[in-house]
Design brief:
single chain; alpha/beta
């Protein structure tokens, strides 16, 4: 299983893409949020979510996927079917976390948020690189690959009670509820503090209650 490493100098389709930023500067921020866009979207589009939070102490950064997709196939496909995009995307998040750390924002002050394909990538990153983060917000997404079932021993490590929010519809056309349930079980086994909400009839979108849950994550890291 690929684990990103800044020393590896990994090169893939996403490594030379631009990132978009908003909010406080890295030097003045109390915390940061990395926002990962979905398939067909952009860094600028996911960054508009920052308008929903309006926290002056937060630095927002959103990477851009090459060709507006992090990997080509369904997140339910075996991981090797989504290379090299998958590993390239994981490396992109790793590098952003590392850069924020070098700027004085440690992992426990970093929230990683993703929607749809971005939520899947964000979830996979946190599961493969367990540590104490400020939080994970996976909106309409779950762990990547391994076919229809994720073996419970696929990941190891300690999330040290990192707060993890999973929000998804019960009828999402792209994200089976069963994969969200499996993701919850695995993150619990990694010592994560999982808050999962399944919304009846929502579809593939973000709702107001999910925004409120993310605001709670932000409040936890900025006021700690």
């Amino acid at each position: 299983m690929f684990r990103a490493d800044k020393k590896s100098n990994f090169q893939g389709p996403h490594q030379n893409q631009q990132t978009a930023t908003a909010g406080a500067s890295k030097e003045n921020a109390k915390a940061a949020m990395i926002l990962i866009h979905g398939r067909g979207a952009s860094a600028q589009s996911i960054l508009t979510l920052a308008n929903e939070f309006s926290d002056p102490d937060l630095h927002y950064v959103a990477p851009q996927a090459n060709d507006h997709q992090w990997y080509p196939n369904s997140f339910l496909a075996p991981s090797e079917k989504n290379e090299p995009g998958l590993s390239s995307g994981l490396q992109m998040i790793y590098d952003l976390v590392s850069d924020l750390g070098e700027s004085g924002i440690p992992k426990e002050k970093i929230i990683i948020l993703g929607f749809s394909q971005g939520a899947c990538l964000a979830s996979e990153f946190v599961a493969r690189h367990p540590a104490k983060y400020g939080g994970l917000a996976a909106l309409s997404g779950g762990l990547i690959g391994k076919g229809d079932h994720v073996p419970p021993d696929s990941y190891s490590g300690d999330l040290e009670k990192t707060p993890l929010f999973f929000g998804c519809s019960n009828i999402d056309p792209h994200i089976p509820k069963e994969r969200v349930d499996e993701s919850e079980e695995i993150f619990n086994s990694l010592n994560g503090d999982v808050n999962k909400k399944i919304y009846k009839g929502m579809g593939h979108t973000v709702n107001e209650d999910e925004i409120l849950e993310i605001q709670k994550l932000i409040q936890n890291v900025t006021e700690a």
